[in-house]
Amino acid sequence: MKQPTPAPAAAEPSSRPGGGPRARNRTARAAAPDFNARAVGNPATARLESGVGNCFPGLEMDVRNLEGRFFPGILFRVVTQPLRPVPEALPDQAGIRLVYLDYLNDPMLPQRGGEHWVQTLLDTYMSKVGTSLSNGRWYLHWLEQEGKRIACSAEDGTPYDGETLWRFVRCLRADVPLKIAVIQRDAPDPQPVVELTGRRRRYTGDDGVIDTAYPPGELTESMCNPWQHDFRDCACYYWASNHPDVVLGEIDRTAPSDAVPADPDQALTWLDWLRRDRSPAGNVAAPPSRAEARAWQLDHFEINRRWQELAYVIEGHEVGAVYHPPRHERATPYPDAAAMIDDLRHRLAPLEMTLCCAYLYGLFSLRDPAHDHRHGAWATMHDDLVAARQAMTLLAVGEMTHLRWANQLLWELDAAGFYPGGEHYEPVLDVLAPPRLWLGEPLPDLQALSPDILRRYAFIERPRGDLDRAYARCVATLEQPAYPRHLFELAVRIDSDGVSHYERFDQLARTLGAYGAQDATAPYLRPLQLGTEAQAREALQHLARLMAALKSGYQAQARRDPQAAQRAITEARAAMDVLRQEAEQLARHGIGVPLFDALAPAP
Amino acid sequence: MSERTGTRRSLVGLHFHPPMAIARVGGSPHPLEAFEWAEGRSAHGSTLTVLQPAVSFGVRDDGGLVPYLPEHIRFKDDDGRIRPVAPFLELWATLQRAADGGLEEQAVTLDLLAELGIGLDHVALEVTASNLKAARRTDDPACGFTARAEIAGTDHRRHALQAFSRHTAGQVPLVSRERPIPLGAVQWMRPRSEAEPGFAEVDLSVLRLRFTPAEGKVYGPPTAAYGPDRLTVTGRWDSLQFFRKEDGRVHMIVEPENRILSPDTVFSQYRMVTGLFEDPQPQDGYDGAEEGDSRAWAVVDDTCDVLITAALAWRGTRYVAEGRVFVGPPHYAPDRRPFYGIDDDLADRDHGLMAVDTMPFAQVQAEVVALFRRVFETASSMNLDAARTEALQDNSGGAGSAPPPKGGGGARLPQTDGRSMTRADKPYADRIGDLTPGQTDSVYSPSVRGDTLSFTNAIGHVHGPLMDETVLIDFLRRNVDRVKRLLRPPFGLLGQWDERPGPEPHADFRDPRVDRDLMHDMRMPPYMRDAYYVPLSLTRRQYHLMIDFLDRLAATPNPQPEVSK
């Protein structure tokens, strides 16, 4: 006899630990049904975990409809106050209305056996009380559980709207005694009230299936009709995982990884996934509000027929019809841990600091349109400077983050025992020593961000360039089983994080290259000269404070003192803030902070 | 006999595996091939979730399955039609061992049937698929439509599900029996004992059913031909204020061959917000809602939800397995998963909190890491700028008096106006001010050429690194109290509520009767809408997982490196 059906193997575990099918006994299964059990032949998007919960009203099912049969034997309905009631509309509709009794064949109410409350409830339904509940308009009046009676109306007697009351029901516990009362609203005063005792339904059974009290169609009946209508209009913003709001353009995944995209804007511009025009004419930046986007999106009715034109999205990029799994391109590992540590300490970490300083200096070289209104004849310069300054800020922040992660690799390697004998981790916060070569080629010195310099940065950051592959050897080394897994992930994180730098610099070069001179006299630049230590004294003091805080923080992390580390990070951020303010002030006066000199390694 | 256990076994129960599945519409006749989610391992690929092709099935003419492993995943045919998700459900049995009474579960196979002394002719299936969307809006059952198939265990043909409206005398059916709406197909696959070469691990003798959804078409009455669509987003505003203004592009609503529904049902008279019908929410979720006087075009789709029943007769007793399939739209970003899935929603209703204190630490940590991965996968495609604007406009639209600045316990609450998620939103905002330097005290983002979505751009910087376990755990250790503060509390259990609430929100849970608890702010998840349009939180289970894990992290001094894998 063949063995039980095995779970398909994945290269790496999915997000759910032990998510494959298990040979568990019924008790274990009842404790936590495996809603996401896998069957051979099914794509992962057939599992419930691929569907967005928390429905309003949902894409695959409306989970809220479970509350319609929260109480055994009754179908309730959420009714909201109509916004524009016509004269013939019934008054006082809002609330949770009893639609009908439905106790025959309710799995919670077996006619034979069952607990005492079940028999009592059935007797009630089968009596004159049940008959009365089948006539007139009955609404939920109060709920009582765990010693709390919660009224379905406010203190002034105004009934809560059905939407609010649904939440009351949603917050009930299963399997705990529950009392409810329903009141007949269309009866004369005093309006009859019927109290019922039971339990909130447990919505899924031991076998993981939603209770058969819910007939086919009921769990989807409140969803948009057609579903394409919801796709066009939903503003809940929680389902971007299934229906993206914004995406990046398509990239050629079969091209060599060192191929640079012809249009860097395509790699950096957020597109509206719902745009009507998917030609280059329509591939423009998504607006920051739904109202602004509306006119350029697929319309109702139109989407009923064009929904298959919507692009699939992988890794945030639109893709064509076919997805090719990524190729693994491995660099040559280091010969040993010592070689990797040496490279991290003396080349890679200092490189991050060097680039961070260069990008910060570049940021300060840009005019700040908030303070400097000399845009002259260029109507677009204000916006381009805002965007450029934002881009340079993110680039500098990114390099600072890489510096931290490079240090983290080092202290984790030390903690895991890979440091050479007798040596231990010390924070690396220096820039590369002069002449600041990267594989034999000089890196730009601290320079204003002229188009020439931007093109040099783009060249340095180009895909498959030496900088782009800087951490590839670390990744290849740490992938080996001798090393803790989490270090591999950290190396991949650093390695992947700079992927868009090339496109960013290329875009900046094209954008800012439209403003006349291509050198440091470009009109968008401040006339910046590298200052002396005396001129930049205060800024350098803030820089020293920043470095001290970073050193303290990294040391605290290395000795596993997270609270001290966080205090140091807070201090570092405060120092960074005042450094930026001081550096901007100096730059407005044409003085650049000599960051490299201050951070040069000791001879 | 069980070769595995060497003992006789008795059948105790049946179930489907998976118990419930999602099918996804598509116009292609070729179903989407199988794939799994895996963690990327390539340099430059980060540690993103990637798709890994998995064993898929071709179907022979006789209903038998042929396993193969695709090299890539094709989402669409060359003509652009999307490949549907057509899930398989396996029939499984619970068996009791004669020797010790122990229970075990396994798939029902030809061998197991032989062990039990029965055959495929002892199995029968019933499949019922219904779409009740129009029936719900109109409260008229004759506007729903249902298809049924009864399948013998020896019948391996593909059965089309042709749906029409149940009705009684005097009711007008929306969908006639003569012109039904196809809701897909179901097939009881032919099991076979011999393995496919190269796929010995795939047991082809397992009893399986496959549900194939419909093609994603819409249907309507003859009148649902062409209609205009207003180019404004009404949503939170009363769209009937503008009903005299008819503008926008005109489009075909339903293809001519699909205008087969009756124009004489109540659905053709349906209008929202009048009080004549009990509108489901959101009330404007139907074609026609946004134009004119909101009269419905009476359009329906071909989705449905399905109940599948398998009955197996053994020793005079009928053993029944039930399964469900829900038909939805394509999952257009299949390498992304929601952080609040249907499974989370179901578990939150029926199961208590996770016992974080007693679970193995590595297991708890893995749950937290998995949650943050899914948070990134949702947030990374979100237009946070648009969501923020809309949520803060909701706050101002619904505000009566100013919200209380502090909550229960005296904790300062986040801002609910244009200061939300800016430098001024202390102590909640941390790095966001640096990442959005141009943002002022405004509900709008300062969009400029080259930097149109500054909040959206910040997501990758903040949440991208948190996908990695090392970075995440390091961050959480350093920010225990801040992260607790940043998480929006879920709604509390009814037993926790005050019988009459005050205006100040409780520190640890929300109450739907408290206005401040229904206002958007930057707490996580930010600016997303919950069911019934109030701010979203994690589920109770997820929230307490986070809180309890953070407490456990804080209580662990000088931790050594942890690796959950």
How would you describe what is shown here?
The complex is a heterodimer of chains A (603) and B (565). Chain A folds into four domains: 1-66 and 213-232, no CATH class; 70-83 and 91-200, Pdz3 Domain (Roll), CATH 2.30.42; 244-319, no CATH class; 337-530 and 595-599. Mean pLDDT of chain A is 87; it is low at 1-31. In chain A, strands 4-3-5-6 form a four-stranded antiparallel sheet. A two-stranded antiparallel sheet of chain A has the order 1-2. Chain A is α+β, with helices and mostly antiparallel strands and 603 residues long. The relative contact order of chain A is 0.07. Chain A has helices spanning 26-31, 116-125, 128-133, 162-170, 227-233, 264-268, 290-293, 302-306, 337-365, 381-415, 451-460, 472-478, 485-497, 501-512, 537-558, 562-588, 595-599; strands at residues 74-79, 95-101, 138-145, 148-151, 177-184, 193-199, 246-247, 271-272, 312-314, 317-319, 322-323, 437-438, 441-442, 529-530, 591-592. The N and C termini of chain A lie far apart (74 Å). Chain B is α+β, with helices and mostly antiparallel strands and 565 residues long. Chain B is built from ten helices and 20 strands. Chains A and B meet through helix 1, strand 1, strand 4, helix 4 and helix 5 of A and strand 1, strand 2, strand 3, strand 4 and strand 7 of B.
Question: What can be said about this structure in brief?
Answer:
The complex is a heterodimer of chains A (603) and B (565). With 603 residues, chain A is an alpha+beta fold.
Q: Which features characterize this protein?
A:
heterodimer, A: 603 residues, alpha+beta, Pdz3 Domain, 4 domains, four-stranded antiparallel sheet, two-stranded antiparallel ribbon, 17 helices, 35% helix, disordered N terminus, B: 565 residues, 2 domains, six-stranded antiparallel sheet, five-stranded mixed sheet, 10 helices, globular
